[in-house]
Write a structure and sequence with these properties.
By secondary structure, this protein is mostly helical. The protein contains five helices and no strands. The two termini are 23 Å apart. The relative contact order is 0.16. InterPro entries: DUF8042.
Length: 131
């Protein structure tokens, strides 16, 4: 059984590797929707779905994974907005509203994932410095 430090290190390393690819995919989907290339955008969203679910689980585990002194206000204050944006995606897909899909990805979903990525990137740099 791994201790919490080993588990958090493993999760954050996975996030550092995976999140740039997820962000790139979501950005590409947004561009496809903006260019009215909906099939390509939908295909990317389909592929990104599992990654988004994994990301949500990681964010929900932050209180356990991060050191106690770590400030997560930026993440927790934006969490509900991000969840609302995710929940709005299916109705937008059903309406085939490519413009709104692109806007939701660019304005709500991608920025939140970037906030999280920057947080763990900064944390990783600080912990490497301390070792």
């Amino acid at each position: 059984m791994k201790n919490i430090k080993e588990l958090s290190t493993e999760i954050f390393e996975s996030a550092m590797e995976y999140l740039p690819r997820l962000l790139d995919g979501l950005y590409r989907a947004s561009v496809h929707f903006k260019n009215n290339e909906c099939l390509e955008g939908y295909a990317i969203l389909h592929d990104a779905n599992e990654g988004l679910m994994w990301f949500n689980e990681v964010v929900q585990g932050l209180p356990v994974l991060l050191p106690q002194e770590e400030d997560t206000n930026n993440i927790t204050t934006n969490w509900q907005r991000y969840i609302n944006a995710l929940n709005s995606m299916l109705p937008l897909i059903e309406k085939r509203d490519a413009s709104a899909l692109s806007k939701t990805l660019e304005d709500e979903i991608i920025p939140f994932i970037k906030i999280f990525y920057e947080k763990i990137s900064n944390l990783k740099q600080r912990t490497e410095y301390l070792q």
